[in-house]
Amino acid sequence: MVYVAPAPHGRGIGSVLLQALIADCQGRGFRQMVAVIGDATNRASIRLHERHDFIRVGVFTGLGRKHGRWLDALQMQRPLGSGADEAPSDE
Asked: How much is the pLDDT for 90?
């Protein structure tokens, strides 16, 4: 989980961090990345992930509680490399 302090919001730091994480995961040979956004109404986080080719794949309804309300958690996924288009190796 990565959180950016409020002061630099809107300056592209989240994007730089996410790009670095994606590159590192690709470099390690991972096939998929999964993001779970703890509040499905967090538009800034959703837009950030969508800009980096994550797609919405599901919602956990009423999964968490924060500030006196129930939250849905949004699941997003992004293929890396060949993703699921290539059969897994026998290793």
From this structure: 65
How many CB atoms are located within 10 Å of the residue 79 CB? 15
Q: Give the rounded distance of the alpha carbon of 82 from its chain centre.
A: 18
- At 5, list the tokens: 């302090």
Residues 44 and 72 sit within 8 Å (Cβ to Cβ): no
23 touches 53 (CB < 8 A): no
Distances (CA, A) of 43 to 6, 82, 90: 15, 28, 40
Per-10-residue mean pLDDT, the chain, length 91: 73 90 94 94 94 97 91 96 76 64
